[in-house]
Design goal:
The chain is mainly α and about 190 residues long. It contains 11 helices and no strands. Bound molecules: fe (iii) ion (FE) (2 copies).
Length: about 190
């Protein structure tokens, strides 16, 4: 499927807000790819499909992952919304015909991150956080600017803010160990 065909299908699979977010991430990812000399097509496909499983009801996410033999961590069991990343990578391949392992990987790690993410992984993770419709995170203007200058610094800033939010805010106690590991990894690299 090409980008246009995928959009048509996603419009049916996602609610309106999620669909708008999805397009927003696609174009933001494309812009970041331009700024950092990465592949535009990959960025657009990964951005467009990153949340393709998000609107599947949580109970169904769980059963579908179990049926497919997708490994579920304890954190995901408690917070099945996290599974939209793994399930999304699966659907991108099976239902949207994406064969490029890098695109699938970027979708798979877009929620928790992963230590040693590659360029595309970082672009999608960051685009998801800074796309123009986002308005809740603190210091967004600063993070947005940083994202076009230095992906690693931007990633570090996002991980810090996110972990802080998860520790203190609404998502209390819901930190996926992978997020913590990612943060540790970046911190060691940068400091
Ligand atoms: Fe997501
Ligand atoms: Fe998203």
């Amino acid at each position: 499927m090409d980008l246009k065909q995928i959009q048509k299908r996603l419009k049916k699979e996602l609610d309106k807000e999620r669909y708008i977010h999805t397009l927003s991430v696609m174009y933001t990812a494309a812009s970041l790819a331009m700024a950092h000399g990465s592949n535009l097509q990959q960025a657009m496909y990964a951005g467009l499909l990153h949340d393709c499983a998000k609107c599947i009801p949580n109970a169904k996410k769980l059963t579908q992952c179990k049926e497919l033999g997708i490994a579920i961590t304890e954190t995901e069991e408690q917070n099945p919304l996290l599974l939209h990343a793994k399930l999304g990578a699966y659907l991108a391949k099976e239902q949207y015909g994406i064969d490029d392992p890098e695109i699938l990987h970027a979708i798979q790690v877009h929620t928790t991150g992963e230590p040693n993410m590659n360029l595309l992984d970082k672009i999608i993770f960051i685009a998801d956080y800074i796309e123009p419709y986002r308005d809740r995170a603190p210091n967004l203007a600063e993070t947005r600017k940083l994202a076009f200058l230095d992906l690693d610094q931007a990633l570090f800033q996002i991980m810090e803010i996110t972990l802080n939010y998860l520790k203190n805010g609404k998502g209390r106690g819901m930190i996926d160990p992978m997020t913590q590991e990612t943060y540790q990894f970046i911190r060691e690299r940068l400091t």
